[in-house]
Amino acid sequence: MNNFERIVMISPVGLEKDRVLAGLKHFGITNIYLIQSIEKHGVGKRLAETVRSFATELKDYLLKIMESIEIKEVNITDLQDCLRILSEIIKEEKKNQAKKIYINISTSSKIFAVAAIYIAGLDPFFIIPFYVKTSNYLIQDFMEILENQDNFNGQQEIFNKLIEIKRSFEKSGWTTGEYDVSVIPALPFKNFSDFQKDIFKEISKNKNKCQLQDLIKHLKSEDIKERSFRSKLSYALRDLLDYGIVKKKREGRQKYLILTEIGQIFNKYLT
Which of 127, 165, 198, 245: disulfide with 263, CB 3.0–4.6 Å? Predict the structure, then answer.
């Protein structure tokens, strides 16, 4: 199979199994990244261990039908960490000349889903989020048993029903039944020029605290006059300031340029 046909899926593994793989046939996926929770201790340890065991089981299953399966770890409750792992994967897949990248946003935290939407907005024709609707959550079956205890023939029947739910969970995760895949269109962000991207990089190098003179020193080429370059720089910065990606900050008499929080997201992906 040539690189042009490389179609990638990024799928977080929560308390799900079947739902994680729902986009596999739908999009003709050739390569998969499974995203699992980082190893935890204390209160979140048991849940993290369950998720990590699900990821391992899914990888073992997928290796029987596919050649390339990778498991990546992330703190799914940290927006910056979610952005980091998505950026790393996407940059790598651009090098691999992947045709499309699909991101399953239905099987992880809401924070991971937000990160996926942010990233997709930077390249919406290449990065495509999707959501997998399910017809049944096992919690519904569990609540039905609790609400209708009087309809069962004793505690043993209730116990047997709970065992069935447990086995279903171990097999498929928290959801069962029919799945419906829906693509989530991402609103494209403004298409910034290479020069504006260079400004992002330079501000980042200066620890997110950059003076105008720093940009002139590092970005101006020898074949352009400083006056002309200042005009070009002013125009580029005005666009960035108006869009809310960069803002000005004053400390005493000194003025600095810093990236806003959204600007930092752009910078994490672009650099």
Answer: 245
